Amino acid sequence: METISKAREENAGFLARKHLATLLEAGRALGYRWQGPQLRDGAIVIAPLEEPTALPWGTGDRQAAGEYRTRPGDPRRAFAWANGPQALKPLVFAPRETLWRVKRDAQGRLAFAAETPLVPRTAVLGVRACDLAALELQDRHFLAPGREDPHYAERRRGLLLVAVNCTHPAATCFCASTGDGPAAESGYDLRLDELDDGYIVQVGSQAGLALFEQLTLQPVSEAQWQAAASATEQAVAAQHRVLPPGNLSGPLFDNLDHPRWEAVAERCLSCGNCTSVCPTCFCHRQDAAPGLDGASSDQQRSWDSCFSEGHSFVHGRSLRHDTRTRYRQWLTHKLGGWHAQYGRSGCVGCGRCIAWCPVGIDITEEAQAICAGGEHE
Ligand code: SF4
Ligand code: SF4
Question: Is the whole model's pTM more than 0.70, yes or no?
């Protein structure tokens, strides 16, 4: 049809909700397995996705400091929620994996072998703008020229990302203030705007175009474009938390003795939840896991946190032996040191660390209090 051709020429089209299954089928035909959001144990999580019916239709979320709950939402919508505890991080930076193995042969010689993951090509549906921004930051770390991490690189290579613009930010979200959302501007292969009866689909890459060309699309009407733009504007307006703008290195490192560090340490449990859910945190530890046969050992990498005692363990002692110095390390690195290392802040405003902190510590409040200098209540 001429109209469909025209829509494809413009790399945008409207996918009716009843045709959403064709997106998954087309992805599978191109060799991808799907992952997507699903309701499990009271949270929206990313899991293997077989059918659109498994998506969280009619589910919203309510998030606040120290609180995450799902709640009933619009049954016509599968993406009318902000985010769940995961971002893309577990798909590329595995929570635990073997990096290499060593075995002793019958003659007593040791043979070392790298363990590279075999990862099927994976398409992810429902990626948020903040998660794309976080992935781009993790790329800067794990794919830095000359020190590329082969495990991350292998997983990253096979990813196809279908973003869905966020229309229902949580009270904890502040991606508008960090410039990372709520609409996806880059880093996606396809981008969707969810409307009541379907999706505006836009192409962001050659891989996305290959998928796009398999879809049954209609031209996007002016009213549909306007509905999508209006939803994004409302998502910006709905955000009330803000992070102080710019490079906070100066104000943070100038206030290393601020009393607020002690005040936050009185509440902080040093549990590391904030770093686990943070889509940009990349700290990890490596441990040897000797085999029971006494002739082999695996070198394993697992997520670590600057809140753990072992994270700063050097020459027989922990350099950051109390919660005050650990929280300070997290905040000063995330919002200050990252600028020198990676050219921007390490926070993309997803708000997960606020919602999933068991005592409701709010990074925006802490940053504002410390960067303002002086003493604060
Ligand atoms: S620091 Fe908090 S709000 Fe910022 S990216 Fe990490 S989890 Fe999200
Ligand atoms: S700030 Fe909250 S989530 Fe992070 S370590 Fe402290 S108590 Fe745990």
Answer: yes
